């Protein structure tokens, strides 16, 4: 009997330590490709129950340390993700890559920086400039309003501290990375990161699965389509990790989002050519996009995206 009780107590203690998010379940890192591990976050928009955790933090285990890509959306979630990283390996975290300026991807730098004050945090120079110039504060406001879980994330924000331009290479203990910056796609601050040893590409939010993000004023739907079409023409790497949703092989990861964006652009172009407003083609676009209706926030995003694509087509026509 004593033995059973101690087993139960042990299991209870263990489950207390798991990273649990109510109805979204528990989250751990999975080994996906060679020495690359990913924790697939919930795909729902930030809310109180997901605590502002919604992205795909990744870890690359190298000889003497760990490299993290997009550690998560705030300091508190970052501490829980750090505890899960330590279940993968107790090696120190030596570097972080941030894919872009949106706080749901990089605010958790703070939890890692607290434990490893000398960690190198890489990002595109546009990201460093924009987050310091007000974007971090703006995202703090958005995420705090939606999740009430931003305490400890600011004062000061854990900004990236090393800039990487398009085509730059980084080597950490024999792990080789090369980064690409599509000028304007999901934002104008994106880095797509290739881990050459494992042939893995981190796409950032240039690809999402199961949800739609916002296309803000720094983004380009047409630019995003161009980037993805270019990736489809190149020789496929072994593995692709989107900013949100399941990772996997190239076409499985890229095709759904690319199809969505191309369909939105097609209907926006039709509206523009026919002298209609973007919202007037929404019913037809929604019909063609039926396969995406279960993706989170489908209904309100389609209208926004049609309007954004319409605007881009109009601007291009003016030039
Ligand atoms: Zn984003």
What does this protein structure show overall?
This protein has 319 residues and is an alpha/beta fold. It has helices spanning 2-17, 75-88, 103-106, 109-115, 125-147, 221-233, 250-273, 282-288, 298-318, and strands at 19-20, 26-27, 30-33, 36-38, 58-61, 66-69, 93-97, 120-123, 162-163, 169-172, 175-180, 192-195, 200-208, 239-244. The strands form three sheets. Strands 3-4-5-6-7-8-9 form a seven-stranded mixed beta sheet. A five-stranded mixed beta sheet has the order 10-11-12-13-14. A two-stranded antiparallel sheet has the order 1-2. A hairpin with a 4-residue loop joins strand 5 (58-61) and strand 6. Helix 2 packs across helix 4 (109-115), helix 6 packs across helix 7 (250-273) and helix 7 (250-273) packs across helix 9 (298-318). The protein is globular. The model has no long low-confidence stretch (mean pLDDT 95). The site of zinc ion has 5 residues, from loops.
Summarize the structure.
With 319 residues, the protein is α/β, with parallel strands linked by helices. Helices cover 40% and strands 18% of the residues.
Helices and strands in order, then pairings?
Layout lengths: L1 H16 L1 E2 L5 E2 L2 E4 L2 E3 L19 E4 L4 E4 L5 H14 L4 E5 L5 H4 L2 H7 L4 E4 L1 H23 L14 E2 L5 E4 L2 E6 L11 E4 L4 E9 L12 H13 L5 E6 L5 H24 L8 H7 L9 H21 L1
Parallel strand pairs: 6-7, 7-8, 8-9, 13-14
Antiparallel strand pairs: 1-2, 3-4, 4-5, 5-6, 10-11, 11-12, 12-13
The chain binds zinc ion.
């Amino acid at each position: 009997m004593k033995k059973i009780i101690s087993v139960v107590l042990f299991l209870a203690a263990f489950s207390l330590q798991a990273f649990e998010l109510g109805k979204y379940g528990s989250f751990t890192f999975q080994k996906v490709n060679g020495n690359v591990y990913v924790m697939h976050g919930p795909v729902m928009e930030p809310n109180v129950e997901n605590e502002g955790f919604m992205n795909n933090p990744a870890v690359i285990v190298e000889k003497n340390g760990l490299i993290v890509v997009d550690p998560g959306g705030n300091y508190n979630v970052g501490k829980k993700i750090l505890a899960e990283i330590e279940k993968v390996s107790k090696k120190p975290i030596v570097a972080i890559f941030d894919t872009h300026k949106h706080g749901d991807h990089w605010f958790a730098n703070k939890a890692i920086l607290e434990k490893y004050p000398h960690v190198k945090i890489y990002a595109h120079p546009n990201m460093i400039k924009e987050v310091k110039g007000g974007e971090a504060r703006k995202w703090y406001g958005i995420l705090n309003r939606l999740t009430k879980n931003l305490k400890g994330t600011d004062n000061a924000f854990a900004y990236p501290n090393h800039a990487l331009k398009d085509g730059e290479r980084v080597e950490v203990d024999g792990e080789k990375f090369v980064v690409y910056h599509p000028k304007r796609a999901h934002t104008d601050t994106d880095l797509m990161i290739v881990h050459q040893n494992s042939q893995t590409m981190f796409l950032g939010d240039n690809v999402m699965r199961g949800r739609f993000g916002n296309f803000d004023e720094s983004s380009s739907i047409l630019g995003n389509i161009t980037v993805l079409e270019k990736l489809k023409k190149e020789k496929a790497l072994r593995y692709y990790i989107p900013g949100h949703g399941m990772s996997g092989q190239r076409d499985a990861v890229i095709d759904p989002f690319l199809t969505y964006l191309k369909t939105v652009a097609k209907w926006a172009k039709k509206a523009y050519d026919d002298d209609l407003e973007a919202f007037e083609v929404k019913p037809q676009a929604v019909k063609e996009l039926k396969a995406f209706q279960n993706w989170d926030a489908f209904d309100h995003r389609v209208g926004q995206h049609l309007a954004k694509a319409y605007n881009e087509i109009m601007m291009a026509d003016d030039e």
